[in-house]
Amino acid sequence: MEFDWEKELKELPDKPGVYLMHDAMDHIIYVGKAIVLKNRVRQYFRKSTKKSPKIERMVSQVAWFETIVVDSEAEALVLECNLIKEHRPKYNTMLKDDKGYPYIRVTVGEAFPRIMLARRIRKDDSKYYGPYTNVTAVRDTISLTHKLFRIRDCARKLPEDIGKERPCLNYHIHQCDAPCQGKITPEEYRKHIKKAQDFLDGKYDGLLAEIEQKMQQASERMDFEAAIALREQYYSVQRLSERQKLSDVNGENRDLVGIAVEGEDAIVQIFFIRQGKLIGRDHFHVRVAEGDDNREILSGFVKQFYSGTPFMPSEIFLPAEIEDEDLISGWLSAKAGHKVTIRVPKIGEKHRLMELAEQNAKITLDRDREKIRREEARTKGAVKELADLIGLTDVVRMEAYDISNISGFASVASMVVYENGKPKRNDYRKFRIKTVVGANDYASLKEVLIRRFAHGLEETRTLEEKGMPAEYGKFANFPDLILMDGGRGQVNIALEALEEVGVDIPVCGMVKDDNHRTRGLFYNNIEVPMDTSGEAFKLITRIQDEAHRFAITFHRDLRSKEQVHSILDDIPGVGPKRRKALMRTFGGIDALKAAGVEELLAIPEFNKNAAISVYAFFHDGEIPDLPDDNEV
After folding, report:
1. Domain that holds residue 38
2. The model's pTM
3. Which of 198, 490, 567, 626 could form a disulfide with 484 if both were Cys (CB 3.0 to 4.6 A apart)?
């Protein structure tokens, strides 16, 4: 049904809720929340309302919208976060990274607590440390606590299982006091746990000195294996301690959030401060649209990141104020079970720390931008170099084709797609050759190209009737350049196929040398010389290899399916159990062909009908004569 805009806008509810904007293909392209849905949604479609370029583009693509009413603005905020995470709308600010962080868990609720790695915080009697950003260092630290403080690492249920099994190897190498055997009391074991918790709280100095002393002693007595092990332990503790050089006298749990933005690229940097010590930092790539300011980006990031993180700090420091700050703070407080405050420090030490986070964000963005420049040189730059070589302009999409078969068996074709020099794997297509018998690559290529572009033309007509762009179709999006795996012959057969369907697209051949390595291009009946060290040549090589790989993989899959097909599969009345019984009894097809009906009837899984069916299958449909008592 056609969407009735006037009616839907009039009937918008005067309540809080969430609105979802859909495009013509029913994709959700934007999700937002509102205190009053009627007022908020109408603003998008009023011509008098000033809109950002991003919102203008978004509104132009909206085909219909829907609303979800909730009881409060807080509920709308939670629902908005969940829907954004689920649908990942293209016009919402999106957190690209979906990271999880490890924690150290101390099961203080047990009689003999354990120390282990945890991926999320549970509501139990355990104490959690973290989150940390280096899982290897966390594992090393846990291992170190086991060795230094003689903490058990088994999963035995104690004290119930005391004495039921022998002590493990750790007891014999003096790294555990065997609480499983009752060799240490819960009170004494708790003292070990207390020391381990002090260590996890960041009291490293005495421990580092102790390890260093032991390492020196091991070296002096020429026990280099022990010295190396101690050195690794020392480095593990040192790596963890170095993260905690930045201290806060108040000993609070805080996250410091910095941001750097340039164009559509944004980096958000977080410093994790736990109990006043910096335990780690991490950065996140955020997808932003033109016109988004720092406040919008930060608001989207805070809602998405903290809706999924299991640990909530008491304070979140931001470089700029965000919309709905009080609402978001209240939501996070309810989620955390304790007060969470969002602050924007202006002066003093906290402001200095914020500047440090922003500096790190900018450094990361600059570093990644250099990577982006290099990537653009090998992708977009290579495409431009290629287009200049053959005298084309505005080449964005390229399609490459290849044929794969073995002596004409199961001929297949591959179509790989590159846009702006990058593979667009969602648009790759596979073709089984239908009309060509035997190994005829030219005829096979012609069939594939005719099928591909005839289907594309039909799909384009259908989309135009619906008022949809070509990008919504599987074949309607035509390439700016076609690349054939081969030279003059392949190019000419491609041009012949395109002429037959009435499509005009440039065709280029990817020529190989005698060693089957890419040599250059064939275009307009001449071979175009190429710089073999240039990016265009490297791109052509990658495309040719990818087309060949995709075709070979498809052919191999089909060949495997054909090979696992047994002649027994074609016998009527013979299923998996009977096929297995036949092979078990006769061992091979030749012996089975020579078998009589009496031998088949001797197999427990066979009745008279099944035995006759097998015999007739191998004897051109002949029905054997059976004694009267064996007649069907």
Report:
1. 5-89
2. 0.44
3. 490
